[in-house]
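=== RUN LOG ===
request id: a7f3
mode: sequence -> structure
chains: 1
length: 152
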Amino acid sequence: MAPIEVSATVAAAPETVWNACFEPMKWEAWDPDLKEVTDVSTPGSCREGTTCTFAMNDGSRIPISLSNVVRNESVDFKGGVAGGLVKATGKVRITPVDDDAPNAPTSRIEYSFELGGLLGSLVGMVKKRECVEGTQGGLDNMVKLSEEAQKR
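=== RESULT ===
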């Protein structure tokens, strides 16, 4: 399965996006496929090398590790199950949008997700629509949470 890539402009500063969605770990607040995050190695924190388990709505549990964590800018996640037959990877990038409205900060969120591995690629093809909707839903929720937090 090729990566699903979505992006949006959000009426919030990068710091607000980060605090609303990633610090402390709030993945289940924006990822529509995720029930909860458990077993976080650095409780509450989204840091380089953090490991955790994504407890999915379908009952599956996916061990995850975080990398390329740069506060207010980026986080990558990867994990897998079934001995690597199903792999999940994702990236979030947050960049400020240069504009002339300092009282109305704006950012760009880019989010990509991919299922890989022998079975993961097959699942990604069969359930492509669900994967696309879940990725877009995650982005939409990040935008909503960030804009609500910016208003506070």
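=== NOTES ===
Strands lie at 4-10, 34-38, 51-56, 61-70, 74-81, 86-96, 107-116.
The chain is about 30% helix and 40% strand.
=== END ===
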